[in-house]
Amino acid sequence: MSEFIIEFITSWGYVGIFLLMVAENVFPPIPSELIMPFAGYVAADGALNVWGILIAGTLGSLVGTSAWYLAARLLGLERFTRLCNRLGRVATLSEDDIDKADYWFKRHGGIAVLLGRLIPAIRTLISVPAGLAVMPFGMFLGISAVGSLAWTGILTGAGFVLHESYDVVEAWVDPVSTGVVVLAVVLYIWRFITWKPIKDIG
């Protein structure tokens, strides 16, 4: 699995990283915890520039998370709920997910958006209460950019460092990366099957 991801990133370059991060933020087919470290590995190998990777990863994250923000802000509570009930099963978006993000936002405001970008379970969904609360888009984008850059930077840096010791950890990198993807798929299928309509997200 690690070889496949590395080859994909090497072949598609910054555009591939951007698209993967957009998809990961809309609905996570492959977690960013795999995308960005392997992008960092490719950078250490000399195929891509680390700054280009950080920009592509951060922009992809911003586009993906902004889609949720804009949907929530433009549609409002009632119409957004109806949209979630139509598409929530595919995106595996549950009422509990939004409740958690809403709790974070109401308790911490802008700080919740910043810190939420660093927490896998909250990263994308924190955009929903921010949009419903009509948080200024410029403020949302700026705070999200800082959080996203920090997140992609940490993961990319880990992959960059990994390159130096790849011959040591190669034996477990591929099984672990394969396991993460398999687990993500299993969880997606489980959430797809057990999904229930959202009654109220206010």
UniProtKB/TrEMBL annotation:
UniProt keyword annotations, A-Z: Cell membrane, Membrane, Transmembrane, Transmembrane helix
Keyword Transmembrane helix set for record: yes
GO cellular component: plasma membrane
Parts of the chain that traverse the membrane: 12-30, 50-72, 125-151, 171-190
Key word Cell membrane present: yes
Cellular compartment(s): Cell membrane
Topology with respect to the bilayer: Multi-pass membrane protein
Protein name: DedA family protein
Species name: Devosia oryzisoli
Taxonomic placement: Bacteria, Pseudomonadati, Pseudomonadota, Alphaproteobacteria, Hyphomicrobiales
